[in-house]
Amino acid sequence: MSLFEPSEVFQFAIRIEENGEKFYRQMVQKFDEPKIKELFSFLVDEEIKHKKIYEEMVSKIEKYEPFETFPGEYFAYLRAYADKIIFTQEEFDEEIARIKDINAALDYAINAELDSILYYQEIKNLVSENQRSTIDKIIEEERRHFVKLSEIKRTIK
User: Fold this and answer.
1) Is residue 120 part of a domain?
2) Higher pLDDT among residues 134 and 74, named by residue
């Protein structure tokens, strides 16, 4: 028996996207450089788009029983990982307060994109074969975000 339902895994994905949107919105307000504002504004829109996709997928989840060494192992792993990357409002505010310059903002964003990629690769196992291509597209978008953030970071050193 799982500790929670597969649909909850997608609720975590939705929260990840909400956290990303909130972070990027704050970075748009925090920095004045047009190139950085444009990048973070683009990423706000991307997070909103991904959230909508996951909200639609929640209603289409099929029952999934992953191979486990003990009951609930796979879902416990996903929950523990989600807990690491989903912040409370207080934790989020503390993270934002630590960001003092564009490099710190870009480092935070790069790490968040990498965390998202890993999480989304894992949740692909929870959906039917025909839905996996949708998650693959999101993973590919997250990779593009990672590359774009990394390239901009290199140019502003």
Assistant:
1) yes
2) 134
Residue among 13, 115, 17, 129 nearest 64 (CA): 129
**What is the residue-wise DSSP string for 68-107?**
-SSTTHHHHHHHHHHHHH---HHHHHHHHHH--SHHHHHH
Residue type present at position 133: S
CATH number assigned to the domain comprising residue 49 = 1.20.1260.10
Residue 1 lies in a domain: no
**32 in Cβ contact with 103 (< 8 Å):** no
Q: Which pTM does this prediction carry?
A: 0.76
Cα(56)–Cα(54) distance, integer angstroms: 5
Domains identified in the chain, total number: 1
Asked if 24 contacts 40 with a C-beta cutoff of 8 angstroms, the reply is yes
pLDDT digits (tens, 9 = 90+) for 23-81: 999 999 999 999 999 999 999 999 999 888 888 877 666 555 555 555 566 667 666 66
Task: Identify the domain containing residue 86 by its residue range.
Answer: 6-155
Give tens-digit pLDDT for 87-114: 667 777 888 889 999 999 999 999 988 9
Close Cβ partners of 101 (under 8 Å, ≥ 6 residues apart): none
